Input
Amino acid sequence: MRSTRRSESVAGLVGLGALAFAALLVAVALPDAPEAPRYVGAGSETPRRGGTLVFHHEGDVRGFDPHIAFDELSNIGIKLVYEGLIDYDRDTLELVPRLAEAVPEPSGDGRTYRFRLRPNLRFADDVVFCPQPARATAPCPGRALTAQDVRWSLERMLHPETGSPGVTFYELIEGVEPYRAGQASHVAGLRVLDERTIEIRLARPDQTFLFAMAMTFAYPVAREAYAFHGAEVRRNPVGTGAYRLERWEPGVEVHFTRNASFFIEGEPHIDRMVFVLNLDRRAAVMRFRNGEIDHIHRQTPADYRLLMSYPAWAPYREEHPKTNIWGLGMNCEMAPFDDRHMRRAVAFALNTARWSRARAGRLMLTGQPIPATLPGFDPDLPGAHRFDLSRAREEMRLAGYPNGYPEPLTLTMSDGETARFYGELIQQDLRAIGIEIEIRQVSFPIWLQQTGTRRTVLMALQGWNMDYPDASNFLDILFHSRSIHETESENKAFYANPEVDRLLDEARVERDRARRLSLYREASRIIVDDAPWGFAFSDKAMEMWQPYVRNFRPHPVWSSFFRDVWLDLPRRRATEADFPSRAVPALLPFGRRP
Amino acid sequence: MIEMILKRAGTGVLIVLFATTSIFFLAHGIGDPAVATLGPNASPARLQGFREQHGLDQPLLTRYGSYVGAAATGDLGRSFRDGQPVASVIATRLPRTLLLMSMAMSLQLLIGLTLGILAALRRNTWFDTGFMGVAFLGISVPTFVSGPIFLMVFAFLLGWFPIGGYGVSPLDHVGHALLPALTMAIVGASMDARIMRSEMIDTLGADYVRTAKAKGLSPARVVLAHAARNALLPIVTLIGLQLPNLVAGAIITETIFAWPGMGRLVIESITSLDIPVILGVVVVTAVAVQLGNGFADVAVALLDPRVRRGR
Output
């Protein structure tokens, strides 16, 4: 027995020795990780056609049916295969025409919009256009897109059997309710005037309607694809976009090829797009640095710090705030947060600059409900929440608790390390004004359920991502009393202020853009003053691309958006002349990759 | 033998049923799948429609009865997330995991048994001590530590393997599976090597091996045909016991190496509370583990007549 133990001890020591030896070998023999791009472009300054662009996302796509899918990844593919009547401009977020000749102006009563399609629009070639699709061995030429297709697509999306999650954005079209109830065979508010013109009439004026028309739910689809594929159209999309779906290996890769009949002459520039799915973000960064992936948009904190520290990558990365908002929501119907002073005390006690430091600066701090990327955001909004301990203590005094709140308050967070991390930061911040916090973590589905139920959750970290780029998508949903329900409430602070409701209702129908934005600013000011949330931050994203990927700029609404992008081919291996070596020498002078 | 197989099958069915039942009730207690699937923006009417469509408005016991009834006929329901039949989702993912696991198991046995036999033959030499030390290390370093390190060193820095993923052609799949399979194999191989070594040391000292040597058989035949065959018995039993570990290892390894198999599927379905897929994975995994253990038992019986005869 003793000799076995001794032999095992010796074996263990040898093992440790082997580990140390292996570590030494690794340190000595391994090449350095590259700190600059491996490949650069040919040096052309004018856009050229050709090449394959490989881009990555960490998750999986659900499908390419624009009426059903509404997640970030599916929308990337949908934006490649389909095209909308109108879209959001990358720089100004103004609406711009795409399939439509122009962005329509509302009629005098503000209820009618007339869309006129461009001439010569065609669906991409596909077997569904063949006389006998089941027997077709090659795609047949796509037919012309008409106003009838636009109406058919909207009606299909609105039909209850489709189960589209987007219906709520279009319920204001006249006649949707009887259509969905099965009392009408068509939506009365959708009228085809001729082959290229469709008129949409609303039940009431609403300035958010055109934003909804730029959402993917409103994209025209080919009815032949639905007739042939049925629900499987999610795997076999047919649209008028710049690309056709070529191959989809679920959970692995999606391949798209250029649509030769795309309506803009000479576009798209890139022949093929490969969408790599499900790769762990660390692995994706490694592939990117090896030149195997051309564009990435998400990194681990460690990779983020490394990539930010490499000067050679500086021209090929862009960090930008996302159009979302995060804050600490307080239930205005439950004590002690039914007292405005208590809420304001919490809002001013949140030391968000410290949060940002702890997140490597990847937070865009804000103190108001409209994200900085949207029109209506006011950088000088009076009273915007900023960390101010003396003001927070003063509000505690006004609330009647100059020596702190007498009992612990519960903070409900969803599961995961990040949620716990923020929970602990909030706990520390509020301790400074005498509020003890008990953190309660629940699964995300439970979190959604409980925070949406009236008089259930006292405080929770809340967030909202934009559906469309307009202030109404944040203020109406999160702070209008109409969004309060007994369960599944979107207004999870259960905040109700008649003056805010009035301003938001007025803004929704106001046609003068400047006045509309001033109404939203005024509503923001009141909301900030009432502090149903302690407004904290918007997330930041960093997108990176290879030097030979030209004319890429991140889009504030669409993820991985490559319109107008071209590849400067043929790419070549980078040399020392392209990116001079780093200033700090490597630890060991050998083993470098040539 | 047939009686043993029938007994084993009966126990297996009970275990699968128990696992499915437990997960069914646990999964339905986590939260509302309608909200988890459709997200916080969905209208109450849409949420209600989803619940009706998937029978979530029915009492839990009724749902359980319907599920077990349908599952018995091979119908595992449809995914909440994308409406696909669960059986077809699993049919896409399962072969990928089986490829990974079979490569991992082959590498594990190849490395483990070879090193175990060599160490026993060179007992108490530097070779023996050194290799057993490395095996000790292999057992001590879990996959979630070795995986990212291997990916960084062998794939990224040295460029010997692809950096994660699945590849596009059958040969490409095998190439992409090599590094994750090796990562999974190391722990099992280290265990197998240690057990094989000690079994071989016992067997090499047995009378029948001495007799075989005395009869003038070649050393290779003595070692492989006589000693190793008997030393294999505990390894075969161990393989059966290692199967659940291999499945658990696959979940971690598939996540690290972006291998789109059952392991990733289970993580994705748990994250999105896709209960039909969670249950489908549980059923298929439980059946696979039971089958694997059953085969191991039969293999032991075939190798060892004493087991076969019930002694």
User: Anything to note?
Assistant: Residues 74 and 272 of chain B are 24 Å apart (CA to CA). The mean pLDDT of chain B is 85.
